[in-house]
Amino acid sequence: MAHKNVENKDIIILGIESSCDDTSCAILKNGVLLSNCTANQSIHEQYGGVIPELASRDHQKNIVPVLTAALKKANVTLSQISAVAVTRGPGLSGSLLVGLSFAKSLSLALNIPLVEVNHMQGHILAHFIQEENQNIKQPSFPFLCLTVSGGHTQIVKITDHLSFELLAETEDDAVGEAFDKAAKILGLPYPGGPLIDKYAKLGDATKYKFPTPQLKTNNYSFSGVKTAFLYFIQEQTKLNANFIEENLNDICASYQAHLIKYLLKNLLTVSKETNIKQITIAGGVSANSGLRSELELLGNKHQWQTYIPKFEYCTDNAAMIAITGYYKFLEQEFCGLEIAPLARYEI
To answer: According to a count of CB atoms within 10 Å of the terminal CB, is the N or C end of the chain lower?
Structure first.
């Protein structure tokens, strides 16, 4: 299909993100972010986790209003858009399908290129989002990225905007799942990860100890840590029915510190093995204040250059999809309308 706008002087990318329960649209002009609008879904809180069918229904309701808001804020019309970039995966199939179908429709109706984006690559490239009248510090190549979210825990080596090499990953659960599961055990509402972070600030991180998996590789494993935490809480509440209530801050501080120490221990090992001192974090868990501060402390100790994304670019957002789409646009990496969503999508 011949597309218009490919040779336009201004490259205006529309980014669409719908991999889980956030519907997001962003407008990027020549690599500079003009708008990033997101609709969150509160319906899942009563269920203690994301219900896929409800998520996809809400995406259908939200996507047109969110796009309208993004265009209005950016002062851009649909006819000015050079290409539409959309999350293909990984994520919930039904949620991905809503965003992907919408993006395909726009590509076809506007006769502009379609760019498919790997959600995890988007998280990493969030470090390259530039805002108007701001000069945000960016990592130089090669750099390492610890990507941490509800579904992923990875250490990735990045040698170019579109060149990624997976060096380590979790062999079972992700660290975000380890946070959310512990929060559920403690009776905290969903999403529990941010609440653990909140209470951890008030507690003693040295009070309780948890086991660290002993793997022969630099990979991670969190299933055993989750189980150990469950048994610990069960044992303590048998002795004292009010144990959680009386010790919540210390429990959260100790558990969070343990997870962070484990994450950074492997990251340090990979940094030494690769001799790379440009270090970044990305993904939803990179919003954790404990992880952010501990990364900076470790960076100072080992002469790293550390890069931490702004909070709004940690969680799922379309700005990261738009910036990835921008670099793919520059390389003319377009896709056809036949592409399907990928619930699993290797980096």
So the answer is: N
